[in-house]
Protein 1
Amino acid sequence: MNTEGNIDTHQQEQEQLQARMKRIRRKILILSGKGGVGKSTVAANIALALARAGKQVGLLDIDVHGPSIPKMLGLEGHRVSAVEGGLLPVDLGDNLKIISIGFMLPEGDSPVIWRGPLKYNVIKQFLKDVVWGDLDYLVIDSPPGTGDEPLSIAQFLAPDALAVIVTTPQQVAVSDVRKSIQFCRKLQIRILGIVENMSGFICPHCGKTVDIFKTGGGRTMAREMNLPFLGSIPIDPNVVTSSDDGRFFLTQFEGSPAAQAFETVIRLVLEQDNAEKELFPMNNKHTDPVRHLKIAIPVIDGRLCMHFGHCQHFAMVTTTGTKPDTGLAVEYLPPPSHEPGALPRWLHEQGADVIIAGGMGSRAQELFRQSGIEVVVGASADTPENLVQMYLSNTLTSGQNVCDH
Ligand code: ADP
């Protein structure tokens, strides 16, 4: 084929791809710095939750090195069906369609050796040829890292792609997550936020969360990088059980702390999506919106009240401006009633991201975390402004959570 012919084919393919992608309102790449952090689990459950929220959703598993969606959803052995005009996704009903690169691979455990250009072409073919129809969301389980494959996907989707970055508490300390963030920024992919997976362990005896590794790093990193934090999902052995059974964790273990954490993530994804519409009505910029933190502190006589149940007010401190000119705005609100669970609900309604307290029982800490609020305990009876300054400069540390079963 001559060069002109190649250019024509390339252009034709590009047009087909764009025509297909135009029918999809939002494309969300689920990214991680490394494999094994729960990226596919998060992708599958985000897709399901969006579908349950009434959105038309496609889940595209393009993790060429280890497509785990077929096994996770009991679709092993399924083969891709080709129809005129493209490849048909599996329609699971209830607004959710799925296609995986695993549907095209030989069965069994034999590893597939992909040559670079083949991977690129398969990824392009998937994006170009899958007949999704009209979708609200396409959730894409991308290969881990920031190498050639995620790059090809992002380039095919840019400038429309959005990203959710999945990490674990151990991983946030290393540079992989920063690399994923930089990767998105370079490609002008707007990051919807960071999810910290395997964050603490739900004790099977007492049901409480035990922080095996230091948690909260995902939130700290999100704050440092001026990104939304979407939530912490605890380690729950039932996540593995449901994946082994080929069932969605969210439906099988509805109401569990990990399922509730997933629901928080998804609510924030939807909120971010709506926020984008408000922030960027003529959106072409794809910059991360400036996100201000709201920090709640129980106070008595203008200083932190060591027992939050006895406080006179809650100081709601909001960060203003952007680094290095971050300022603080403080508002004092009367506390809600003393019923169990009222405070986490109330603070959540007030939009609090963090609560700084003196002492707090582990059950109360858990309730706040389930509401997507970071808890910092062990703070001294200082003024709200000083405490927030210490918090922002990372000099306030969280006390240990004790499992008291
Ligand atoms: P990745 O896509 O990043 O390689 P997976 O989603 O395949 O990761 O998850 C790797 C393993 O960890 C799977 O066995 C999965 O069931 C398990 N897993 C993921 N998230 C959790 C969690 N929150 N609690 C317990 N196990 C989890």
Protein 2
Amino acid sequence: MRRTKNDRPRLAVFCSGHGTNLQALIHAARRGRLRARIALVVSDQPRAYALTRARRYGIPTVVVPRAESPTRAAFERTIRYTLAAHRIRYIALAGFMRILSPAFVRAYRGRILNIHPALLPAFPGAHAVRDTLRAGAKVTGVTVHVVDAGVDTGPIILQETLPIRRGETESALLQRIHRLEHRLYPQALHYLVTGRLRLRGRRVIMR
Ligand code: GRF
């Protein structure tokens, strides 16, 4: 039987901000370079531009502001309930500014990816590009990794480097990093949803 777009593995993208990576994933899914259905966009920020992008393509969105839940557990319960209702199998974090609890990560073990604008394990955290420039690094890059219970510590799937130009500003570098991200993230997610990734301890084996 022919598989249609509706049979594709269901992916949720979590965003807090601008959503340029979401946009790249939407394009890749529409062109078949990412064989997943982006079935839900989750945001903790009601004003995230990512939500506008999703709605433009008719993708269901859900906003779960952290401040409206008494605890992180309650916040995550709401999200998990929504993911279950939308039959989500995979999660892509794309600029989601919340740290998921170990319990949440366990529930989706090996099925949550994150993209980070530096060469992990160097420069983890929310200010990776600034930290990289401040350290005087000559090379940076992009990392896509499996999410584990730590912050930016999970097994690495793909990395690519970018040389830093002399005198380059944070925003100029960020733009080049974004271009690289928009190519790498769909690729890594495609490997995941087509079952081509195996985890062996900390190592990711690609078939
Ligand atoms: C990206 O640079 C990503 O590496 C980081 O957050 C940023 C999100 O950008 N995790 P956007 O919202 O996809 O434009």
